[in-house]
What does this fold into?
Amino acid sequence: MKLIKGISIQFIFMLLICCGSSDINEVQQEQEQEQEPENVNNNPLGVLDSSKVPSENFDLSTWNLSIPENNGNGIATTISVRDLNLSYEDRKYFYTAADGGMVFKCPVAGFKTSTNTSYTRVELREMLRGTNTNIPTQGVNKNNWVFGTAPEADKTAAAGYDGEMKATVAVNYVTTTGGSTQLGRVIIGQIHANDDEPIRLYYRKLKDNELGSIYFAHEPADGYGVEQWHEMIGSRSSNATNPADGIALNEKFDYTIKVVGDSLTVTISREGKVDVVKTISMVNSGYNLGGQYMYFKAGVYNQNNTGNDDDYVQTTFYDLKKSHNTN
It folds into this structure.
């Protein structure tokens, strides 16, 4: 009997009978998958280590990252899911803090993600496709999710429906220069749809105040109404007095953004204090119609483009988790 690279045909035949061809295919697939970047949570216990890069402390397997550096075409650079999870760190924008937290730092000056925005960002964008770049970034597909009230065909086509994002965060610094309407503003979490944002969650601290405010915007889909503003802690006003129950810089707090059907709930939690909760209805906002897709965003989206070029916003995340329902 002839040998093929030291293995007999008889042995191969016996292996096929014992294992079955499907099992051999599974082994081959596992071997192929091992060649891909690890797409798992490297820190399941949530213990933060200052010697590790962010992707080793946090599960970033379904996120990419935008930084305000020129990508060569005059817009911001996107760090892909694959590259983000290959020990990516940048001491200017995105790195591990001395206490192990995940730092996002974004100056006023820099390149934007598109011509449709006026502000810089260092922000994670949810990518449910992971490293499978055969799936388009945009659209009702396995990279994005939809509302539970979307048409059944969209719920089937999407990666999931409804969603919850939980974060523990401290805002370390906000802008202190520029126009009065933009001072101290930063977005720390979002749900983005095709063209609009069902929610943008803001922290704002004016330079003469000790404490900051929390509020959010709900922007209905195009043609379905005007933007709505909801204050949760303090005021969003550019002339706000120090909020009595506000949040100081470097103070840790939790936020939760949750969508169930057409209901959006935002919760702010602090140790030793009663949760602040706000729920709004989005039934008439146009996001439950066919073709509308969603993705979470987290980090810092600087809301000041009038300050000094080197003025900046910075947050540190100590926990970041998200989940969706699947069919």
